[in-house]
Design a protein that fits this description.
By secondary structure, the protein is mostly helical. 71% of the residues lie in helices and 0% in strands. Helix 8 runs antiparallel to helix 9. The protein is globular, with a radius of gyration of 19 Å.
């Protein structure tokens, strides 16, 4: 893969990550996304253009406001970097083509779902819709109708039953239905398996460490996002490796 393409992709995804960071900060607070310029949370000063360059501005300012010297929340920097890296990896592995671009966009959406579910315990219908639409486009292009349709049902139906008993959120059901259309049967099952394993281990550690009750709610979407990203990029190799062991 041409290094210039990867560098350009990194910058584009960093900008998308900056927007995602704004969304994940403003939406939980009930603020408008597109209204109001970015400002310092401490001194309320409007930021200048050079102070809003994704990743670079944070590093140049050393994580502090250029005027009042208060600390800039590191979450924005982490979000920008994470989206830039996750998206660029998709382009690097699959190339600057239809699949690579689609997977890069999905990586951005997964990051948004990951962060929003942690903060609000909810998964946006818009985010699920974007993944579903991209999945439908991929299904039509690759003519994977049976795999995509069965993928959309294989995990979402069991999750729907669990949601009826309040053991699962309906956002997770919609999410796995959308992911199923995108990834198909095998990789969707793998994504769910990885997410469930990581989520279960994390839940045990969190409850023991923080002494939470076993009935307390823990967002499951972030773990499903991790499973989806891993399966999306490496699912075929992981499945082939597993089959070779049988």
């Amino acid at each position: 893969m041409n290094s210039l393409i990867c560098a350009a992709a990194f910058m584009v995804f960093a900008c998308i990550g900056s927007f995602i960071g704004v969304c994940t900060e403003r939406i939980p607070r009930g603020e408008q996304i597109f209204k109001g310029r970015s400002h310092c949370d401490n001194c309320q000063r409007l930021l200048k253009p050079w102070e809003m360059v994704p990743i670079l501005s944070f590093l140049a300012l050393r994580g502090k406001c250029s005027v009042c010297k208060s600390k800039i929340p590191v979450t924005g920097f982490i979000t920008e970097t994470a989206v830039a890296v996750l998206g660029t990896v998709c382009i690097w592995l699959y190339g600057f083509n239809f699949r690579g671009i689609v997977y890069g966009v999905v990586a951005c959406v997964l990051t948004e779902i990951f962060l929003m579910d942690l903060k609000t315990m909810e998964i946006s219908d818009i985010a699920n819709l974007i993944i579903a639409v991209l999945g439908i486009i991929m299904m039509i292009k690759n003519k994977t109708y049976i795999s995509s349709l069965t993928g959309g049902l294989c995990v979402s139906i069991p999750f729907l039953v669990m949601a009826a008993f309040r053991a699962m959120g309906y956002g997770d059901v919609k999410f796995m239905a959308a992911v199923g259309i995108l990834l198909g049967l095998k990789k969707t099952l793998l994504a769910a398996f990885i997410g469930i394993v990581i989520g279960s281990l994390s839940a045990i550690i969190i409850r023991i460490k923080e002494k939470k009750e076993w009935k307390s709610e823990i967002p499951f979407g972030p773990y499903l996002c991790l499973g989806t990203y891993i399966s999306m990029l490496f699912g075929d190799k992981l499945i082939s490796f597993y089959i070779s062991l049988i």
